[in-house]
Amino acid sequence: MTVFLVNRVTATPAEVTLDLSGAQLTGIIECVTVGGTDLDARNTPDGPDHAAPHPNGTAHRVGAGVRLTLPPASWTMLRMRTTEATP
């Protein structure tokens, strides 16, 4: 399962908790973030990594879900391994 999250607020991070009670979370595969407070940042030949994805190590399991922090003005991709929950 892959979830994309956006924090449009430029001044503060966002704490997010995803409720995955409809699925059995078996692991977090990857969590990467692109963004920052410089909304005009862009990649150039002299600075090819200004707007590059970097690991977001805040994602962790909480009960039947995942909690993570989205930095200000950022886009985050969270990839998780899940199986269907049994009724």
Label this structure with key terms.
3-stranded antiparallel sheet; 87 residues
Query: How would you sum up the global shape?
Result: elongated
Low-confidence stretches: none
Helix percentage range: under 10%
- Main β sheet profile: 4 strands, antiparallel
Number of strand segments: 7
Q: Please state roughly what percent of the residues sit in beta strands, choosing from under 5%, 5-15%, 15-25%, 25-35%, 35-45% or over 45%.
A: over 45%
Number of helices: 0
Q: How would you classify the helix and strand content by structural class?
A: mainly beta
N-to-C order of helices and strands: EEEEEEE
Lateral arrangement of strands in the main beta sheet: 1-7-3-4
**Rg calculated over all Cα atoms:** 15 Å
What does this structure look like?
With 87 residues, this protein is mainly β. It has strands spanning 2-7, 14-19, 23-35, 54-55, 60-62, 65-70, 74-84. The strands form two sheets. Strands 1-7-3-4 form a four-stranded antiparallel sheet, with no helix packed on it. The chain has a three-stranded antiparallel sheet with strand order 2-6-5, with no helix packed on it. Strand 5 (60-62) and strand 6 form a beta hairpin. It starts with a strand and ends with a strand. The model has no long low-confidence stretch (mean pLDDT 91).
